[in-house]
Every structure is written in C-alpha cells, then in structure tokens.
C-alpha cells in the first residue's frame, strides 16, 4: 500500500502520518507543492492521499483534490482531508464542500501517531479493499466475456443481471433481451423431470451448490441438454445475494444437430458466421465415442462411403481383442455420460493423460532452471541424441580372458584371515566395501560372492559344486574393467551386498521364493559386467557395435545379460546352470534378465510408479483396514504374493541396490560420488576429443559442482524411490544416512564449494 502526504510545511501532523505509515508498513511519499503532488501521484498511483486542509495560505487543498480527481488513476484512490480542530463553542461544519471537491473522508487534526495509524488502518480495511475489488472487476468481466462456458448471474430473486457472450451463443438470445427479466419469464423445456426445478431451488436456497444435467429451451424453441452448476453467492449478513450458473453443452448428437441447424437458420453476416461457427459446433472431446454418421459426406451421392465408414467404426467398437488401456478408456467414457460437469471435465483430463506415450515420465522444466538435473536425465534416461557417421566407438572386451593366473581360494574356508575378519561384518548396512577392495587387490566380488552365496544356499539351489560357483565368480569378476573408476567389480560387489541386505528384511523375505532370491543375487553380480565406463547415450552417439546390435535400446543392460550367459555357457567348469532342469532354468534366466534390464534408467519412473500403485498403496490400505479391526497381522500375502507383484519387488530391489550410494555412510557416499563424477568427466573429455555431442555438459572437470550434481540426483531419482522402498521394506538406517548425506551436499553447495568436502576437511 502506498500513501502520498501533501503538506506545504513539515509539522507534528505530517510527522504523525509519516510514522503511522512506517508502523503500518506502507510506502510513503511527501509532496510540498501542488505540482510535485500531481507529478508524484501520476508516477506512483498511491492508494491513499492525505491533503493538509488546515491553512489556505500555502495552497488550496480543494483545488489540489479536484486536479487529482481529474486524472484516471484517482478513480480507485481514497483522498483524506486534514481539517483544523474546532473548539467546543464552534458549530460543526458541513462535509459536503469536501465531498463535492472529491474528498472521501475528513480527519480532525490530531498529531498522535496512534490516531493517524488508526485512521489509515480503517481506510485500508474499508475503502481501499473495496477499491481493490472494483479495480479487479474489469479483469473479471474480461475473463467472463472470453470464457467458453456459458455464464449467467441472477439476483436472489432470480432476475437476470448478467450473461456472457458464450451464453448468448448457446441460447440464441442477445443480452439486451435477457437483462432484467425473471427466469420464470423465459420458456422452459418440457424434457426435464417435473420435480427437477423444485429440487434445484431446495438446494440453492439453503446455500448449497447444485450441479447436474438440465434441458434448456433456446430462443428458436429447440431443447438442448446442458451440464449445469449453480452456485449461491452469500453476501453481507450471510444472506444469499446472487446465483451464478455455469452451463456447458453435453456433447450429444441431438445438440450437435440443433446447434448446426440454428447456426445456418439465423441471419448472421458472413464474417460473424465464420468467426462463431466453431463455437456453435459442439466439439466431441471424447473421440472414441464419435458418431461416424456426423462426419461422413452429407451429399446423397455417397451412400456407399457412409455405409463403409459406419461399418468400419462399428467393427472397431465391437472388437473382442481389447488392450487393458482400451478397456480403461471405455469405462471412463461410459462413466462420463451421467457425471456432473466437474467430474466429466476431470475425466477428460484423465483421458488426455492416458493417451500420451510417456505415462510414467515427469515433465522437466527448462534446462536453464536446473542444468544438473537436465543433464543427468539426458545422460541416464535417453538412448542417445543422434547418430554421427564415421565416429565408431568400440570398447575392448575379451570373452576368452584367461584367469588361470588369478589366485583364488580353494574353498571359502581358505580365505585369508584379514579378509575373513572384514567379511564377518558383511550383513551390516555400514559394511565398508572399499576396505574389502583394498585387501583383495581390487577383487572384492569373488570373496563377498562366496560368503553371500553360501549364506543364501545358492550352490544348493543350482545343484552345482562350490568349485563351479567359485570359478564362475572369478570369470565374471575378470570381465569387469578395473580401469573404470566407478563401473568395476567393486560396484558389482556393492550392489550384491545391498541386494543381500534387502533380501534379509522380513517383508522382502516373506514376499519372495528361493528362486527369486537366487535370481536377485546373480543379477546383482552380473548387472554391469564388461561395462565400458560410458553411458548408453555415448555409445549410441558414437555408433558403437553394441548400439547397432541392440538398436540403440537398453544397449548396455542387454549386453551385460547376454555376455554373462555366454560366458557361463562357454566353459563347463564355470557353468553354474548345467545341472538345472530346463523349466527351472528358463524361469531363473527370465527373472535375471528382467532384473538387469530394470537397472536401465529410461523406465525408472515406470518401475517406481508401478511399485507405488501396485504394492505401496494396496498395502497401506490393507494395513489401515487391519488396524481399524484391531488386528496386527502382516498384510503381505494378499498384496504381494503374486508373480506380477514379485516381479515389481525384485525390480525395485535391484534398482535401489544399484544406486544406493547416497544412502551409505557419509564417507562411503563421498567416495562413490567422486568415482562416478570422475567417470562422467572422462566421458565428457572423450566426447570433446571425438567431436561427439556432449551428453552431460555440467560434468566438465573444470567447472562441475559435484555437490550440485549429487543434490539433483537425489532430488530427481533417489528420494521418491527410496521413500517407496522404505515404506515396503522398513529401512530406517538407510533413510537416516540419506538425510545426513543430503545435508552434507547442501552445506557444500550453499558455501559455493564444488568439491567433495569442505577445504578444512580435505586432509
């Protein structure tokens, strides 16, 4: 709120208003002359003006008021006259001269700050707020005039006071024919139920909103069916002052024909008919239920075309092979038919969403809003930007890699004591995988794998010897690239550890079979085998052999699974599946493939949302029901023990295990953040060297803020997913680590620190 004080001289009264404005939080300007007052007002458009009317020696207050009132901005301004205090023996003067001059109020001279403050506050809460509402009226009526819904406003006695152009077009009347008439004077349709009007009046007289379907009669005499919502507007004293009716055509063939007919019958000019024909034709927003007859040729020489079109559409509607989404859309269409207008509109928005291709991917803002998130999404959730011919990228791999030179324990009991001591803690979430990496000379996967697989009885389930399992683990680890800073066998061992930890949680354990557990552990072990340290987008842009082989779709994930099964089958002594019967093997193989493919990020939100909708929400509903009945039983069997739900749980488990770094203890989280950043830095360097599109520009080693990248990754990918997984598996330790680590990155970011730690912590 802005106040203009017009006082020729500074005195206690002007000071009183100045300090009153300060107390009220108003912006205040002071003018000393009529000219400066007018100039200031035209510049600032103050809502309150206080003019000194106590002495005419310096200026004429009424002349100033008239000059201000002559300007357009003053229409919504309150002008206050400060008049001299009268003595008790003087007669009270009339306020009419002040009102005629343009003043709104009179203030008897009083230099008390509190008195001035009270006056200004009263003006704000009275006249100024009313003026604000009046000022908004032009905008409101502009909106109503351009609104596509027909709007009718009546008084409490049902006298029409306003209709908008959409109402005129719908009903065929001009507003001049309606304003001032009672609703009872207008002709009614005989298609409504006899008691419908009584029902409507009963609702709205009680101050309740009514909505439903109503037949109205147009000026031409035709009846049209409308969705109608009538809202009572309560005014001063709690009394109903107006009724606002919103009306929208129900898109029926009958309405279409009547409006089409009336549009051609009424005598509009060519320009008018061109501009308004679109409004007169009722668009059918539910395209699936369109009447084919209405879109065929109207000429009599095309009956065969009309028949053919109708026949084709009839066959489509009678199809017996319906996809689930088609059934859903048909159910929604049917529900719309007898729904109130607000529900029908909401269902229309639902249909629009269901018809999109990316149902599970949230919409990102512009790249400028959050470049770190945009780059992460671009790098992790797309399969490349464009193919560049002549830039072939082939990473080295050797499927015949000899591993006879590696020193491997003969049995799990032959593991060196230093490693055994570390592995004693492997069931703890805070297990330090980097210490195991150090003591095993960068071969943690085989040692951790032997321990974890023994704990879950993997060899027994596969009916293979421990020696075969040991040889297989050795072979898989040998095909991880130790030169990668992140995607190496230490990462695989870390994911295996997280998977085993999750499998130990009661609710997970109670939801999966032994085959599921074995599949999860094998999938975790192989999920990144032969990873080149580059993203799918990079491989697609570089035109790599693998991108061509897998058609730019889930390139690395497809390669990891295919190579793992190829390596396993190549040598009998490494084939952990050779003693399984065919049925069990195929079931196990499909489960492993499904879990590894789930680590591909383009379907991240699909997997998370399906888990929430199919597991979390039904489980929460059942738990609430069981609590209300006084039962403490676990609600796992009905909600989760179905193949589809088991698949969702396994996918979610390996996804969380794969990106659990932000949920590890801070020191481990920091180490992983440094390693993945280095791998992305190396990719950006290579993209620049080869002239490839830079997939993640923020990962430039010279400018990147690692804290920002971690914050974006946690905000966009981690938080929602782990909230959902925690709601199912109950993981308080992980969630506490996540909160602490996020706080760490936030602190670094607020201090503009781009490194992993504060400078004081680097030692």
Automatic annotation (TrEMBL):
Binds 2 divalent metal cations per subunit. Site 1 may preferentially bind zinc ions, while site 2 has a preference for magnesium and/or manganese ions. The active site is at residue 487. SUPFAM superfamilies: HD-domain/PDEase-like, PYP-like sensor domain (PAS domain). One of its GO terms (molecular function) is 3',5'-cyclic-AMP phosphodiesterase activity. SMART domains: HDc. Pathway: Purine metabolism; 3',5'-cyclic AMP degradation; AMP from 3',5'-cyclic AMP: step 1/1. Residues 411-752 form the PDEase domain. Zn(2+) 1 binds at residues 491, 527-528, 658. GO terms for biological process: cAMP catabolic process; signal transduction. Residues 260-285 are annotated as: Disordered. Its EC number is 3.1.4.-. Residues 143-207 form the PAS domain. Zn(2+) 2 binds at residue 528. Its cofactor is a divalent metal cation. The keyword Phosphoprotein applies. Keywords: cAMP, Hydrolase, Metal-binding, Phosphoprotein. InterPro entries: HD/PDEase_dom, PAS, PAS-like_dom_sf, PDE8-like_REC_N, PDEase, PDEase_catalytic_dom, PDEase_catalytic_dom_sf, PDEase_CS. Belongs to the cyclic nucleotide phosphodiesterase family. PDE8 subfamily. NCBIfam families: sensory_box. This is Phosphodiesterase. It comes from Eudromia elegans (Elegant crested-tinamou).
